[in-house]
Amino acid sequence: MKLSNRKSRGFTLVELLVVIGIIAVLIGILLPTLSRARVKSRTVACAAQLKDIGNLFRIYLNDHKNRLPHVNTLPSMQPPIAIHPVTGKSLPTIYETLDRDWKPKAIGEAQGSTGVWRCPADTIMQGNDTVGVPKGFTTYFDREGGSYQYNPFFDGFLAQQFDQLGGINQVLEKAISFYKERRGEGADRLRMMQDFEAFHGKPTEVGAMNFLYADFHVGPFEPKAR
Prior knowledge:
Elements: H1 13-63, H2 94-98, H3 140-144, E1 148-150, H4 152-160, H5 162-165, H6 172-183, E2 191-195, E3 210-213, E4 218-220
Antiparallel strand pairs: 1-2, 2-3, 3-4
């Protein structure tokens, strides 16, 4: 049996450069698609968490005769922005109020169990530091205990309506009615919980933030049609 004397032919430099060029073009095409898919998956995950939080909200309201929780909406701020009228101490967070499994550590430390409270896209944007809150944190979950904020409207509404509407015993329907009278919009437009900031795009883009509305649907903020 005769062995062939021909040597196997390898790639020439030109052929290698062509292959590398094709791979680079494919990567350039695929990377933006993969990036958009990653952003979309995080947006969907955070929206699903807000849906679960809505279920926790329903349970809380059912257990408390539909009374709204009165909480500190920015727990890390000092001095506290919301204090108990009798004890003078900072009010609890919305996280521990709604979720019995939420295990708080000191404010500003990561929680032992993230549960539904940590959005995968949670990021504190540079320049978005608020006066009075600790510096150096990269996520709201680590700083506040959760990626989502309870709408300050409810606490502001409660604080201003103590005499007329029952103070911290205020029920959700009255808040919705008040909002409708002032804004001409119903429960499907009244935001209860929301991403702390635009985690999913530019602040001006529809879909950059997820919201849990007072009718318990979850979606982006959409400007009112005129």
